[in-house]
């Protein structure tokens, strides 16, 4: 646990990446698997994760992300896109995956499927989209923690215009919405932010035991 906490103290929201340093294929696969194994409500994972390597595409996205340099300097750009149209069809597909993975008769999952549909499919679209967007933050947490263990920097970003990113990537046609952006790579030695002391609430201010 001490290594985990040390890694958390080491990581920070990198402001300047070293564009010459790239994440290895092995480490990238580890980060992908960490995201894939993330927890999510019901296990549905109602999102897609786009990993943008193409420099021309990233240059198009940069203005929609307030012109932040990390978008084009980082080794990789991760875009978490939540599902804007999740419903019975997606739940049925999930049940099929459970059936195959666990070698369980699909009929035995009917009750669970009906329960999920009663809680999810009946939600108002705006409420449903907020819920699926929240799921991407769980996946981001796994990315942050796995990257810190590998001494790879990640900068989570909410500073972007979703509608513009959606248009650039054609998300509207895919029933997706840009929920989160994360730039991933290695800090530049000139990034002074890495030397700042981490500022967090004290335990006394943060935790309340009842």
Automatic annotation (TrEMBL):
Q: Which residues form a coiled coil?
A: none
Which terms are listed as keywords in the entry?
Flavoprotein, FMN, NADP, Oxidoreductase
Q: Which InterPro entries match?
A: NfsB-like, Nitroreductase, Nitroreductase-like
What is the top-level taxon of the source organism?
Bacteria
Claim: Oxidoreductase is one of the keywords in the record: yes
Q: Which Pfam families match?
A: Nitroreductase
What sequence ranges are listed for the domain Nitroreductase? 10-186
State the Gene Ontology terms under molecular function. Answer: oxidoreductase activity
Requisite cofactors? FMN
The cross-references to PANTHER family, in alphabetical order and at most eight, read: NAD(P)H NITROREDUCTASE YDGI-RELATED, NITROREDUCTASE
Task: Please give the family membership noted in the entry.
Answer: Belongs to the nitroreductase family.
This protein is called NAD(P)H-dependent oxidoreductase
> What organism, scientifically named, is this protein from?
Flavobacterium gilvum
């Amino acid at each position: 646990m001490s290594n985990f906490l040390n890694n958390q103290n080491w990581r920070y929201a990198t402001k300047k990446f070293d564009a010459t340093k790239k994440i290895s294929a092995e480490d990238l696969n580890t980060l992908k698997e960490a995201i894939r194994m993330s927890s999510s409500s019901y296990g549905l994972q109602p999102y897609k994760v786009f990993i943008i390597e193409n420099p021309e595409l990233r240059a198009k996205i940069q203005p929609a992300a307030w012109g932040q340099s990390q978008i084009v300097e980082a080794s990789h750009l991760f875009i978490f896109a939540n599902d804007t149209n999740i419903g019975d069809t997606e739940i049925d597909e999930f049940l099929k995956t459970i059936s195959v993975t666990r070698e369980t008769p699909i009929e035995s999952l009917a009750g669970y499927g009906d329960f999920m549909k009663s809680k999810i499919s009946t939600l108002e679209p705006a409420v449903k989209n907020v819920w699926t967007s929240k799921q991407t933050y769980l996946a981001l947490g796994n990315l942050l923690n796995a990257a810190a263990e590998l001494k790879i920097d990640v900068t989570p970003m909410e500073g972007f215009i979703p509608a513009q990113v959606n248009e650039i990537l054609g998300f509207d046609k895919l029933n997706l919405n840009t929920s989160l952006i994360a730039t991933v790579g290695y800090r530049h030695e000139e990034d002074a932010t890495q030397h700042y002391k981490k500022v967090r609430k004290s335990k006394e201010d943060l935790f309340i035991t009842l």
